[in-house]
Amino acid sequence: MSELPKGWVNAKIKDVSIKCVQNKPNDEDKLVYVDIGSINRKLKVIENPQHLKGIDAPSRARKRINTNDVLVSLTRPNLNAIAHVPKDFDEQYASTGFEVIKSVGVDSRYLFALVKTQNFINAISGVVQGALYPKQLNRLMFKIMSFH
């Protein structure tokens, strides 16, 4: 393994993120639902999410997203349907087809840049054989600037 620049460390995604909270929306809730079709894969942004009442939300509308979360599609990851969550979608719902990366101790913009790279896409696409599980995604190593 090559030597890292001073102040940098190897880390796993699980080392710099926390689990996403999942819950079923209440029937009367008004919500924005982000599914994989809501992602503009070229621009890497959320476009045209669904505005629904909780009672009408699909069963996959379970992952609570917040400003600066990073969404990574687990469905056909080679298509690189990813987005950095803007404040407009704070406290809304995303599909269980996403891994929601909630950064801790590292700027989420760095993680967003990482998941856009061809190396990351190749790494997670190589792991996928029908389904990619968060446990496998969290095993991927990357380099980060240490804040110690």
Unreliable stretches covering 5 or more consecutive residues = none
Evaluate the radius of gyration. Answer: 16 Å
For the biggest sheet, the summary is: 4 strands, antiparallel
Mean pLDDT: 86
CATH class: Alpha Beta
| Count of domain modules | 1
CATH topology: Adenine-n6-DNA-methyltransferase TaqI, Chain A, domain 2
**Helix-strand pattern, N to C?**
EEEEEEEEEEEHHHE
In terms of DSSP E residues, the strand content is 25-35%
- Which homologous superfamily in CATH is the superfamily? DNA methylase specificity domains
The geometry reads as: globular
For the largest sheet, list the strands in their spatial order. Answer: 2-11-8-9
Distance between the amino and carboxyl termini: 22 Å
Number of DSSP-assigned strands: 12
**What structural category characterises the helix and strand content?**
alpha+beta
Please give the CATH architecture. Alpha-Beta Complex
Into which percent range does the helicity of residues fall? Answer: 10-25%
Question: What would the keywords be for this entry?
Answer:
alpha+beta, Adenine-n6-DNA-methyltransferase TaqI, Chain A, domain 2, four-stranded antiparallel beta sheet, 3 helices, DNA-binding, restriction system, Restrct_endonuc_typeI_TRD_sf, Restriction endonuclease subunit S
